[in-house]
Structure formats: structure tokens, C-alpha cells
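Prompt: I keep going back and forth on a fold encoding question. Comparing notes only helps if you start from a blank page. Show me how you would write down a chain together with its backbone fold. Please set it down just below, with no commentary around it:
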Amino acid sequence: MSTSIVEKTIQSGALASHVLLAGDPKAPPAILLHGAGPGATAASNWTRCMPDLAKHYYVIAPDLTGFGQTELPAELPRHILGWIGARVEQLLGLMDTMGLERAHVVGNSMGGALTLHMLVQARERFDKVLLMGAIGAPHHWTYEMHRLLAFYDDPRIARYREMMHSFVHDPAAVPELENIVQTRFATATDPKIRAVQENMFAAMRDGMDQLIVPQIALSRLPHEVCIVHGRQDRIVPLETSLYFLQHLKNAELHVLDRCGHWAQTQRWDAMYPLIVKHFGG
């Protein structure tokens, strides 16, 4: 079985999505949802992980609406809830086109909040869930998160590098970090993408608290949820995962040491077996 990654454009509701695929289409599907940092894409979050996961699952990693090469709506949302709603419709449309009745989901950061909003709206479409450094809970906004949301006020490479270094516990321990910086900065400052993301980041700054999933909604979700959080996460504090642990009925929390916001980059040694154990395979 090939674990190589294939790029495709797939209709996802009214618009087309740019999607990375790996693994056997007959294997259990696992959807990977990236975060919302400037220049983020499915590739920047997941290409290092997909070959391992493709040994067990049919891995599906889309560029979420507003990121990468996915088609944009004619009128951009003006509020963060509009962006999240567009992504919910994107993912459900993608699953319909691919003939997927149900799927496992991994949600990173904003992708974690998106995951929870999808579960609330279409719980029957999803099986087991892994949240990684997820937002969608009440918490204090860190200095680094404020800097991230204000990136387009001063979009220089030096500042971008500083911001990306805050995503990891020890930059020296991530040899590929400078390549990530260069690749994502080029994406974030591409004129077409920058125009969209300036709109989106303004919406996030004005309405991030609207992404909070209420306690009552979490308590009604039947899904088994594995929660992963870096002990040294400077972007999204551990209190978000404690909120999810408190209010989800079927959840367990794993706090990874020597790990910032990107567990898939810094602690794949721990995260990979957690995914396989949780999803099965």
C-alpha cells in the first residue's frame, strides 16, 4: 500500500477544495484540520504526519476555506462565525462528494474549534475525535496569540520568524523550522492570500469569543474525544483543554512535556501512537 501524498481538487458543496490524500480509500477515513496561523495550509501542518497515518487510515487533509488553494466564496464572511460556518459546509460537502458517511477527525487549534462546531451541527457524520491545542473554550488570550492576530499590522519576515518560534518549545530541536518559516511566510504574504487573510484576521480579532462552544452543547456530544495539549504551549493555554475535559462526557487529556503548540511537529513520537490507539488500527 502506498503512503505517498496526492493533491486533488474536490468539489465541497458550492466550492472546490484543495485536498491532500494518502492511504487506501477502503481504510477508515481520518480528516486532518489545520490551524489558523498566517500562511497555514494542510501541507504546512500535516505533510510530515500523513505517511505514518496512511498506514492505518485513508487520510484527508483539506486547505480550509480562507487558506491555501481552496476556492473562496464570492463574498467573504465578515464575522468569525461566518468563516467557521463556511468551513463546516465545506467539510460536510467534501464528505458528501467523497461518499464518506462518517469519519474520524483530528483538529488542531482553530481546526479543533471547527471540529467541535461540526460535531454540534452534524454529530452523526463523525466517529472518534482528537483535539490538539484546540480553541473554542473560554480562556485568557496570550501575548503570542495577540501577536499572531496582529501579524498583518507588521508583516515582516523577522517578526514572522519570531512568531513561528513561539509555536514550539525549543526551536533548536525542530531542524525544519526555518523551512516552515520561509514557506508559510511566502504564502501569508502572497498578494491574493494576504487580501483574504487580512479580512479573516480582522474578523478573528473582533469575535474570537464567539467560537466558544457552550458547556451544554459539549455535554451532549457522545463522541470519544482524545485531547492533546503541549505543556509549554504559548499560543493556546492548557485551560482550554481543561474546559473540554470538564464538559465533554467521553474525554481524556494527555499533556505532553517538551511541547508547545505543534504537537505533531515536536512530539509526534507521543502523538502518533495516541491517534492509532484512539482511532483503532
Notes: The CA atoms of residues 39 and 246 lie 33 Å apart. The mean pLDDT is 95. The chain has one domain: 6-279. The longest helix spans residues 80-98.
